[in-house]
Each structure stands twice: as structure tokens, then as C-alpha cells.
Amino acid sequence: MTLVYITCKDEKEAKNISMLLLNKRLIACANIFPIKSLYWWKGKIVNGRENVIIAKTNERKIGKVEHEVKKIHSYTIPCILRIGASANKEYERWAGKELR
Q1: CA distance 4 to 54
Q2: Helices marked H in the chain — which ranges?
Q3: Which H or E element spans position 80?
Q4: pTM of the model
Q5: Which of 30, 51, 54, 69 could bridge 14 with an S-S bond, Cβ 3.0-4.6 Å?
Q6: Which domains does the chain have, with CATH numbers?
Q7: Are 95 and 87 in contact (CB under 8 A)?
Q8: Which residues contact 66 (CB under 8 A, 6 or more apart)?
Q9: How far apart, in whole angstroms, are the C-alpha atoms of residue 80 and residue 38?
Q10: Which of 52, 51, 53, 57 is nearest to 84 (CA)?
């Protein structure tokens, strides 16, 4: 199982990206959370609000997930982090079926 952590400018963008990935069967599930972010951008520290997607997929699909996110994401350099994870067997089976 692979988790994909993607930051977005707002909830609408996070939902749009999640729905695209779900409809293409590239992820089995997406969780969206509002977050506060501090980061360097163009020589200044930004203190802002974003929404983060935590999507569940597998290693076979991660390249396609990244490609699709980059096509529609509003950020010049989107944050797309892959995190290896293990899950209970029942969840792994369910996710595997959804990612067919």
C-alpha cells in the first residue's frame, strides 16, 4: 500500500483532484483535511491555509497518480509525496479490488 500526500490551495481543488483519481481508478480512497502551512516561496515565508489529500493506492499506480495530479494542479510545483504503508489484510484486499 502507498499513501500519497498532496497539498492543494483549497477544498474545491482537493475534491476535484480526488474525484479525478477515483474515477480513473488510480486511488481507492481519499481523505481531505484543512491544514495550516508554513513554507518558503519566492524568497519569502508563506503562512497560509491549504487542504491536504491523503490518497490510498499501490506502487503500480503511483506514476499515473503523479502524472494526473500535475496535469490539473494549480501549483507550479505541487507537493506529491509517496509514503510506503502497510494495512490490515482486509483493507489491502478491498483497496486492491478498487484499483483493478
Answers
A1: 6
A2: 11-23, 62-72, 89-98
A3: strand 80-84
A4: 0.95
A5: 51
A6: 2-89 (3.30.70.120)
A7: yes
A8: 80
A9: 17
A10: 57
Measured distance CA(42)–CA(40) in Å, rounded? 7
Spatial CB neighbours of 6, under 8 Å, sequence gap ≥ 6? 14, 17, 52, 53, 55, 69, 73, 78, 79, 80, 81
Q: What is the distance between the terminal CA atoms of the chain, rounded to a whole angstrom?
A: 14
Write out the chain's pLDDT in tens, 100 residues: 999 999 999 999 999 999 999 999 999 999 999 999 999 999 999 999 999 999 999 999 999 999 999 999 999 999 999 999 999 999 999 999 999 8
DSSP state of 27: -
Assess contact for 29 and 85: CB atoms under 8 A.
no
